[in-house]
Design brief:
heterodimer, A: mainly alpha, Ferritin, 8 helices, globular, B: about 290 residues, mainly alpha, two-stranded antiparallel sheet
Chain lengths: ~230, ~290
């Protein structure tokens, strides 16, 4: 891979070291050509053109979509970690156990994307949960419902933006778990509302990345640049 | 590259491999000769595409897409006819679905499945395909006598419902890649896929409340733990085999990143796909 200057070469070297890490190498082997994409993403991190760099760039192509998912999973995982650390008043044993499960699932998703993206991953986001009252069941479950429904719609909307069938399957493996969460949280708030909000055809919602960040932006302090994500 | 060894391996489990590939065993000799002229590096790709042709429908064509949609429509017919019959039995009092929230939920899910049937029929027709057609008489929800009391035993009814929903989630997931060339159809399929997962989550909660057919000591959760059905019947196990995966794309999820993630949680966090062939094997007993 040709490089322009020493700092680019350094970044490529870092990426290559990461790829030699065993679990990451397995992942890259599985995904085949993705390694070239990741190297490119790493090499392009130090962009010569500062005007295209307003905020953390999620990147382009499938790597961009994986970073998009990684950003969303960071929000969810941090939220449920806080919920589990400071449970709302009146939480039942069953709620505590299942919210603990959800935290584990979201942490697993976040760490999976981090490992998968390796050198191509965006940094940890700075989050702002000050609008959430963690001692209030209504506030916590209302936020959880919003996050889960948002996550479902985000993955549903991202499907068509993914080029690789392997990544598409991975997104599919995660989105149905988010939908299981969403239904459970909705039922906790109001029994029987597990699938309210479908259209007349009985279809769930899908949202574009810009629609998703218009909602999720409330909870993210880090400025994100989503302009390079695929649009179809 | 011992390509003939690979073919022989496949032949040991699939005696029809040669027929699938070209219909004639001699074709393989031609294949080997053909490969003799090419660099080793190109072999796996060419071989892979040859197997795809043998085992998969051609991707990207309208035919392949309407095939997937007809497969989905078949599953939606099974579900819609199942819930129609169950709901009607609940109204008639022959199936003891509790009044209130449980009856409401079964009606809600029934209506979604009916809507999915109508939507898929329209989608297939608009693509120039012919939708498959089934009626209540097409199905035997006792699965040839395996579940004789499915419409009189509420616990069993919920257990079969859970199996249909969890299987449906896995079936849609397994077909997503075959729709990758058509953004609109893929998005619609994903938007149905997540609804089936919402149904599965709710039916599982209903089963936890009801407790029927839940083995002692098993905690039925809205998500799938390892390959556990949470149903005291081995007849449904094929719908759960493979869900125990704790490695995703070569990445071990257990305790990933230094966080405490148990094998159970690692398996719950990712739902697994089923192939069309696996799904067909699961639902075949439910056809009359």
């Amino acid at each position: 891979m040709p490089t322009k200057n020493s700092s680019d070469r350094e970044l490529v070297a870092v990426a290559e070291v990461n790829i030699k890490n065993l679990s990451r190498r397995n992942f890259l082997g599985y995904l085949g050509g993705a390694s070239a994409l990741l190297l490119t993403a790493a090499a392009c991190k130090k962009d010569d053109n500062p005007t295209s760099n307003s905020g953390t760039d999620l990147g382009s192509g499938d790597v961009g979509i994986l970073n998009y998912a990684y950003a969303l999973e960071q929000i969810e995982a941090a939220f449920y970690t806080k919920v589990f650390e400071s449970p709302y008043s009146g939480i039942t044993a069953s709620e505590s156990a299942l919210l603990g499960d959800i935290r584990d699932h979201e942490v697993a998703h976040r760490e999976f994307f981090k490992a998968a993206l390796a050198a191509g991953a965006i940094p940890a986001l700075e989050l702002d949960f000050s609008s959430i009252n963690f001692s209030s069941r209504d506030s916590v479950l209302g936020t959880a419902k919003a996050f889960e429904d948002l996550g479902v719609s985000a993955y549903n909307g991202a499907g068509k933006l993914i080029a690789s069938a392997d990544y598409l399957l991975l997104a599919g493996k995660i989105v149905s778990v988010e939908a299981r969460h969403a239904a459970y949280i909705r039922d906790l708030i109001m029994p029987g509302t597990f699938a309210d909000g479908l259209d007349a055809n009985g279809l769930d919602m899908s949202r574009s990345p810009s629609e998703v960040f218009a909602i999720a932006g409330t909870y993210v302090k880090t400025k994100l640049n989503i302009s390079n994500l695929p649009t179809s | 590259m011992k390509i003939e060894n690979i073919i022989n391996e496949i032949e040991s489990v699939d005696s029809e491999i040669y027929q699938r590939l070209d219909g004639r065993r001699s074709a393989m000799k031609n294949f080997a000769k053909f490969f003799g002229k090419f660099a080793l590096a190109s072999l796996p790709i060419a071989f892979g595409s040859m197997l795809n042709k043998a085992y998969g429908s051609p991707t990207g064509t309208t035919d392949a897409i309407t095939d997937v949609l007809n497969f989905a429509l078949t599953l939606e017919y099974i579900e819609s006819e199942f819930y129609k019959k169950g709901y009607d039995a609940g109204v008639a009092g022959t199936l003891a679905i509790p009044a209130g929230a449980p009856m409401g939920a079964i009606k809600t899910i029934r209506d979604h499945e009916i809507a999915h049937v109508a939507f898929l029929k329209t989608a297939i027709t608009s693509l120039g395909g012919t939708p498959v057609a089934f009626t209540a008489a097409s199905f035997d929800f006792t699965a040839k006598g395996t579940f004789p009391t499915v419409f009189t035993d509420y616990g069993l009814f919920l257990a079969v419902a859970q199996t249909f929903e969890d299987t449906g989630v896995r079936a849609y997931k397994g077909q997503a890649g075959n729709l990758i060339s058509n953004n609109d159809v893929l998005t619609a399929a994903l938007n149905i896929h997540s609804v089936e997962a919402r149904h599965a989550s709710h039916i599982r909660q209903m089963r936890k409340t009801n407790g029927g057919l839940v083995p002692a000591g098993v905690n039925v959760k809205p998500w799938i733990t390892l390959n556990q059905s949470g149903i005291g019947s081995s007849a449904v196990q094929a719908s759960y085999d493979g869900e125990e995966a704790t490695t995703q794309a070569g990445v071990n999820i257990v305790n990933i990143g230094g966080f405490t993630i148990s094998p159970s949680a690692a398996s719950e966090g990712f739902d697994e796909p089923l192939t069309k062939e696996q799904v067909v094997a699961i639902v075949t007993p439910f056809f009359a």
